[in-house]
Every structure is written in C-alpha cells, then in structure tokens.
Amino acid sequence: MPKKILIVAGEASGDQHAAHLLEELKKIHPDLYAFGLGGEKLQKAGAEITADITRLAVVGFVEIFKNYATFRRIFLDLLKKTDEVRPETAILVDYPGFNLRLAGELKKRGIKVIYFISPQVWAWGKKRVDFIRTHVDLMLVLFKFEEILYADGRFNVKFVGHPLLDAIKPTKAPQQLMDEIGLRRTGRTIALLPGSRMKEVTQLLPVMLKSAQRIFKKDPQAQFLICRAPTIPRQVVKDLIDQAQIDFPYKVLENETYNGVAASDFAIVASGTATLETAILNKPMVIVYKVSLATWLLAKLFIKIPNIGLVNVVAGQRIVPELVQFDAIPRKIADTTLAILGDKKQMEKTHAELYALKNTLGIPGACRRAAEEISKFLG
C-alpha cells in the first residue's frame, strides 16, 4: 500500500519549503500520496490541495478574527478529508495559529504529527513547549538555538538547517538584470520588499514608496526595485504605486526577488522570512513593520523578546535596525537608510555580521535531511 501523508503549509514561504520537502520525500517514497493545504508550489510538487490558504494569509489578531468563519470551514473540511483518507503521518509546516490546533485534533485520531519549521516559542514564551511536547512526535527545526530550547524540554527535536540555503540562488548577474529592466548600472540601488500578505503590502508599500521619495530627493543617484511577491496581484501593486504619485526611477520585479536583492546595495524589508533571505544575500537592510493598533497592543502584551526581525532574533543581537509601528514612518526610514549607506565602516560591519549569521544556518540540504528524518516515521 502507498504511504499517505497530510501536509499543511499556510503562507508563501511555508508553501515553498513544503514543496521542496515533498519533492525530497518522493525521491525516497515514489508512490507517496500527499494531500492537504498549501499553494501552487506544493500542488506542483504533487500534493492534492483541498484549499489554497496561502492567499488567505493575514496579519494580526484582529484580522484573524475577521476571517474566523473562513478558517473554521477550511479546518473542518480538512478534518473530514483526513478522516476519509486516514494518513499515517501529518507534516505541519510553520503556521502555528492553525497548525497547533490541528495537531491537537490529529493526535486524537492517532496520527503521528511532525512539525517542520517550529512555532516561534522563543517569541511568545515557553508555555507552548508543553503543548508541543504532548502533541508533536517530531520537531524539525531550522535554527540551532531552537534545538537547544526544545532539548531543555526533553523532546524529540532535530536541527536540519535552513532550506533557504538551497533556495536562494540568483540567476542573473547584477549588470545583466539592470540592462534587462532599463536601470543604471551605477548609483545606489535600493530594494523594497513590502511582504507577501495583502494586508502588510497595503500598509507597508505606501510607506516604503514615500520613504523612497525622500531618499531620492537627498540622493538623486538612487534607484529602486519594488519586489512583488507572487501572492500579491499585480494590479494591487500598480494601484498603490499610482496612488503614491512618485517621480523617482524604479522597476517592479516579478518572480525575481533574489536577483533584485542581489543587485541592490541596500534593502527596506517587511519583517518576516524576507529579512533572512536578504541576510543570506548579504545585503544591509532596515526592517519595517506596521499592524493595526489593536493587534499592536495585544502583541506588546505577549511578545517576550526585544527584537522582532528574524535576522536579529537569530543573531541574538540587533545587527540591522528595526523601525516598527510608530517608528515605521517615511522620515525615519529614509534617514536610517541614508545614514547606513553613507557610513562605509557601518556597511562593512553589517556585511561581516550578515556573513557570520549565514554560517549559523547549517549547510545546504535541509529538506533532504528533513525528508530522511520523516522517512523513519513512514517506515
């Protein structure tokens, strides 16, 4: 009988990692049947997708509450499908608000639960570790410090390294990209990465565009690359740009974020996986983020760490600036960007710290190692 697994990924980055993981699993188990939730990449990797929740990705407590009915329907439909298929194992990828609740239901059904990309227990406190120890059979983590955190809880955890080390491979030289899109090879190129979720893009891209306008006024040699995530409709980005009434040189990049960041001198980045991607490409950056006021106030009550940027969390110190909520305004973003770009020693220091950070992420082959660990459960 072919092996059957449930796999769930809830956001664009999780969809990418889940797809690579499934590809590696199919090399070991060619007849593997996978079903669950994800996006286009996971579907192309061979999973039967019952709902694409990557396009429902929301930010914050309030936004999740507004979409509660939709998430509940998807959750219940998935459990119904699970009861019909009866998989031996479930692989849950990141997305803790949904997946941790799902883990509880799966354990009731006697299904082995493997978690790939740990919930950020280090940000929300360690109480979640007790629940995870009870409901998750194997935790596959991307960061060494997470393995240590879970090991303290006497828990089955394996450090596999970060899959981004395999995924981030620019395909064009900076000069080639600039020639193709019609920007100058010289001058300062700044990448704008407003995120992969609709709410964060509509909140952050206007702020980034106003920041870019201020930068351009002080540095007329500056030019900008606006990196659109595939989860964001092209028209949304176009409308936001039109509304901003900008007059600086720019190009919108689609499906070329890695090439764009690699060709840039600096990046203005939404907090999230993109900060780590930018770090691996060794580009100095400023991290920006804004959420609704209600979400911000609730987060202040629960978040237990001084930094929110993944780069700074992994480094254990603030190596790139964070401008969050009330500090995420055009004047501060522009001034911070220009100050770093104008300080040669600071740029060199940041390059060195980002290089050291990359070396803590393990070696390429994370999804292959994760697949090998999962295969032990599949038998």
At a glance:
The protein has 379 residues and is α/β, with parallel strands linked by helices.
% residues in beta strands: 15-25%
Unreliable residue stretches:
none
Q: With helices defined by DSSP (H or I, 4 residues minimum), what is the helix count?
A: 19
CATH topology of the largest domain: Rossmann fold
Percent helix, as a range, is: 40-55%
Give a quick account of the main beta sheet: strands, pairing sense, barrel closure: 7 strands, parallel
Q: Indicate how many domains the architecture comprises.
A: 2
The appropriate CATH architecture of the largest domain is 3-Layer(aba) Sandwich
CATH superfamily of the largest domain: Glycogen Phosphorylase B
Strand order of the largest sheet: 3-2-1-4-5-6-7
| First-to-last CA distance | 12 Å
Radius of gyration, whole Å: 21 Å
Estimated structural class? alpha/beta
Please provide the count of β strands. Answer: 13
Mean pLDDT: 90
Shape by Cα distribution: globular
Structure description:
This protein is of the alpha/beta class and about 375 residues long. The chain folds into 2 domains: about 5-160 and about 365-379, Rossmann fold; about 175-360, Glycogen Phosphorylase B (Rossmann fold, 3-Layer(aba) Sandwich), CATH 3.40.50. It contains 19 helices and 13 strands. The strands form 2 sheets. Strands 3-2-1-4-5-6-7 form a 7-stranded parallel sheet, with helices on both faces. The protein has a 6-stranded parallel sheet with strand order 10-9-8-11-12-13, sandwiched between helices. It is globular and about 65 Å long.
